[in-house]
Amino acid sequence: MSSADDQYEQQNDVTAGDVPAGDSKDNDYASRTGQYQIPVQKDDAPVADPINPDTADSDQTLAQDDAEAIDQSNIVGGRTRGAKPSGGYTEPGDEEGLPGA
């Protein structure tokens, strides 16, 4: 005897016969001769891939990406940006910041 879950799955799960058939490629939106607004290429048009899969995950490539991404001229040398010590930090009083009575 099957459980309630099995019966539910048999009634409600999508099976191969329930999957809608259709064309996965739709070239109706491809630009036609004489249309000059925004060019749209066909689904089966080749796409240039600038990533070389042999070196994409290499340590050298990642180091190069980091070096290109970090602007060395924008890095501050000191931690305080030249500020002089002003006596340190003090705790606020109990009444500080409260509206006057």
Explain what the structure shows.
The chain is mostly helical. It is built from two helices and no strands. It is extended, with a radius of gyration of 32 Å.
How far apart the termini lie comes to 78 Å
Averaged pLDDT: 76
Note the quaternary state here.
single chain
Q: If helices are DSSP runs of H or I spanning 4 or more residues, what is the number of helices? A: 2
Shape: extended
Give helix % range: 10-25%
Task: Describe the structure using short key phrases.
101 residues, mainly alpha, 2 helices
What is the strand and helix layout of this fold?
Blueprint: H1 4-12, H2 59-69
In a few lines, what is going on in this structure?
With 101 residues, the chain is mostly helical.
